[in-house]
Design goal:
The protein contains 7 helices and 2 strands. By secondary structure, it is mainly α. The chain has 2 domains: 66 residues, Winged helix-like DNA-binding domain superfamily/Winged helix DNA-binding domain (Arc Repressor Mutant, subunit A, Orthogonal Bundle), CATH 1.10.10.10; 74 residues. Helix 1 crosses helix 2 and helix 4 packs across helix 5.
């Protein structure tokens, strides 16, 4: 199986009556979360699992044919890599070199990466980044500068 992506959506394989009695507690918890709509990232958040744990569990469940991939939700809704260059630039203007660290910390806190970041989470990202700026004047300046650029990405 290919790499498990946080945007993937799985469901229980109805055609394969797998024996779930040998599954570990966390694996059963993952199976119980599957509804054909939640992404891997949402299930990870619900169960407070990190990326590595989630990938291992999903790989095991897929290889045991307990799960089947429905789709790669949000693949067309991902932000292009150049967006994060613009975002980092705007933050660096206000915060200096620490901006790159803050951006990575916020992405990690959201359990997302630049490569798989979906447009729908953009307002949350901007709010979290704004909250990392201590100076209220700089917060307003950051939002004033970034919102016109976000609008362009949201409308694509």
């Amino acid at each position: 199986m290919e790499k498990i992506n946080s945007n993937m959506v799985f469901m229980v394989n109805q055609e394969h009556s797998a024996d779930t009695s040998s599954l570990l507690h966390l694996e059963l918890a993952v199976v119980s979360q599957l509804d054909g709509q939640k992404t891997v990232a949402q299930i990870a958040d619900n169960l407070a699992l990190n990326t590595q744990e989630v990938e291992e569990i999903f790989k095991k469940l897929v290889s045991a044919q307990i799960l089947v991939l429905l789709n790669r939700s949000g693949e067309n809704n991902q932000l292009p890599a150049d967006f994060f260059k613009i975002l980092k630039h705007e933050m660096t203007l206000l915060l200096g070199p620490v901006a790159a660290i803050i951006l990575e910390d916020v992405l990690e806190m959201m359990r997302m990466s630049r490569e798989s970041f979906e447009r729908r989470y953009l307002p949350t990202l901007i709010d979290l980044l704004t909250n990392q700026i201590d100076d209220p004047v700089k917060q307003i300046e950051f939002q004033r500068n970034i919102y016109p650029k976000i609008k362009n990405y949201m409308l694509r």
